[in-house]
Write a structure and sequence with these properties.
alpha/beta, Signal recognition particle alu RNA binding heterodimer, srp9/1, 2,3-Dihydroxybiphenyl 1,2-Dioxygenase, domain 1, 2 domains, 4-stranded mixed beta sheet, 5 helices, 28% strand, elongated
């Protein structure tokens, strides 16, 4: 079976977004850009699709029009090795976007991201229910995750 490729619908910003995402993540590149022709439905010469990779994962972006918008029902999870990496991705992606809570943000294009430390799922599902509850309570007070504060809360 061939890998699944996420397809992202933009109004007119597909190339701009792909250029932004490939500048943020390592092992990323724009692979191909296609354009509308005289057959339409949009203006001939306008970018139709952009094929690109983020961290080696293939994506397609399409300039499909203003009909559809991103929402939090779909997000991309970035697991970060430490606070420095988490700060980089959070600060870069939220620039021009909107912070949310619990490590979630919307970038300048409206795409949702979860920027979390590696091992967060294990902390939240710790077999010790008190430890997991303390971590959950701490996380619920955070916008950008503070790795040390989250781990300290879990320990008690």
């Amino acid at each position: 079976m061939r890998p699944i490729t996420p397809s992202l619908w933009f109004d007119t910003q597909a190339l701009e977004a792909a250029e932004f995402y490939t500048s943020v993540f390592p092992d990323s590149a724009i692979l191909n850009v296609s354009y509308y022709n005289d057959a339409g439905p949009r203006e001939a010469g306008m970018v139709l699709t952009v094929e690109f990779t983020i961290n080696g994962q293939r994506f397609i972006a399409i300039n499909g029009g203003p009909e559809f918008k991103f929402d939090e029902a779909v997000s991309f999870l970035i697991e970060c090795a430490d606070q420095t990496e988490l700060d980089y991705y959070w600060d870069t992606l939220v620039d021009g976007g909107t912070p949310s809570q619990c490590g979630w943000l919307k970038d300048r294009y409206g795409l949702s991201w979860q920027v979390v430390p590696t091992g967060m799922a294990e902390i939240m599902s710790d077999p010790d229910p008190e430890k997991a509850s303390r971590a959950m309570r701490a996380m619920l007070t955070m916008s950008k995750i503070d790795v040390d504060a989250l781990r300290a809360a879990a320990v008690g």
